[in-house]
Design goal:
With 180 residues, the protein is mainly alpha-helical. It contains eight helices and three strands; from the N terminus they run ααββαααααβα. Strands 2-1-3 form a three-stranded antiparallel β-sheet. Helix 1 packs across helix 5, helix 4 runs antiparallel to helix 5 and helix 4 packs across helix 6. 31% of the residues are buried.
Length: 180
């Protein structure tokens, strides 16, 4: 990722950071990957550490697993990372700024996720494009729902007040998503 992409994806302030964390959390829940959630911490030292995830997200290799099973877990973790990254960018724009995601921001995100897809998952560029388009389009439709925006706004506010939320608090706060 070059410096201009890092600047584009960087947080502007604490509110922007809270919307990013809220977007990642809402996206994980909406995409049925909440089993990966351990917590979310707005005060994490690095933005990449805000989401506290289970060991299943981080570790795919095991002597007891077949190569195929390890690769599938690695691909699943890549998808979850892409869901969080897209949720972050989309929520910051659509919930935090009441604007659609710009084409430049979408392209910057697409470029940022490519190296992991190529190196970690051994995907081809067209496979990365297809996966990215599928997830990004789905989450844009999700965050176009006024109810999801309201829930995201509420969750970002809760996170700014509480600073850190554990899994049970997250699932309790986001339970209204199930009614949409």
């Amino acid at each position: 990722m070059d410096n201009s992409t890092k600047k584009t994806l960087a947080y502007n302030d604490e509110a922007d950071r809270a919307y990013g964390a809220a977007g990642m959390t809402v996206a994980i829940v909406v995409c049925n990957a909440e089993d990966l959630l351990v917590g979310v911490n707005l005060d994490a030292d690095e933005p990449s550490e805000m989401m506290e995830l289970s060991d299943d997200y981080y570790y795919a290799g095991s002597n007891a697993k077949s190569v195929r099973a390890s690769w599938q877990q690695t691909l699943s973790a890549y998808r979850a990372g892409l869901v969080m990254a897209a949720g972050n960018v989309i929520a910051r724009s659509m919930a935090g700024n009441n604007k659609p995601v710009s084409a430049g921001m979408r392209l910057d995100l697409r470029e940022a996720i490519e190296p992991d897809g190529l190196d970690t998952c051994q995907l081809e560029v067209d496979e990365i494009d297809e996966l990215f388009d599928q997830i990004f389009s789905y989450l844009q439709r999700v965050f176009s729902n006024a109810g999801v925006i309201r829930i995201t706004n509420d969750f970002a506010g809760l996170l700014r007040r509480e600073r850190r939320l554990g899994r049970s608090d997250i699932l309790y706060a986001l339970r209204p998503l199930a009614r949409l």
